[in-house]
Amino acid sequence: MLQAGWSRWAVARVFGVHHSTVGRLAECYHTTSSSNKRPRSGQLHVTTAAQDRANRPSHLHDRFRPAIRTAAETIGTHHILVSPRTIRNHLQADGIRPYRPYVGSVLTPQHCHARMQWCSAHRCWTLQKWSQVVSLWTNVFLLHFGVFL
């Protein structure tokens, strides 16, 4: 458009940008024959590619390995420890998500069977029957904590 004789302001109005943006792009195209962005240094990497490659198999082998443990064992490029968030980000870029171990009671088949029996036995209880259980536990609670009404 600029080569067709349009002004910077007219081109900027068409694309909805500031006229200085059009001027910078025109200058960049004039000097480099391309409007691509110039390569920049960007943020410095904390870990090397080799360290990232070494962390990947260890997390694939042990899926419950926490990122905190990997971060504690990894010395960064600037001789400082790497944050666990960095490890998680790099693993996520490789499609790996470190799992967290299950915290809670593990139910055996005997537990499941006992629960099923309890549910079967109490399936037909009425509201009146359940209210007796609630009042019983209320009394136990009051006696246990020494509350007298």
Automatic annotation (TrEMBL):
Organism: Sphaeramia orbicularis (orbiculate cardinalfish)
Name the record gives this protein: Transposase Tc1-like domain-containing protein
Single GO MF annotation: DNA binding
Coiled coil: none
BP terms from Gene Ontology: DNA integration; DNA transposition
Region (Disordered): 31-55
Lineage of the organism: Eukaryota, Metazoa, Chordata, Craniata, Vertebrata
Superkingdom field: Eukaryota
SUPFAM superfamilies registered for this protein in UniProt: Homeodomain-like
Domain Transposase Tc1-like: 80-123
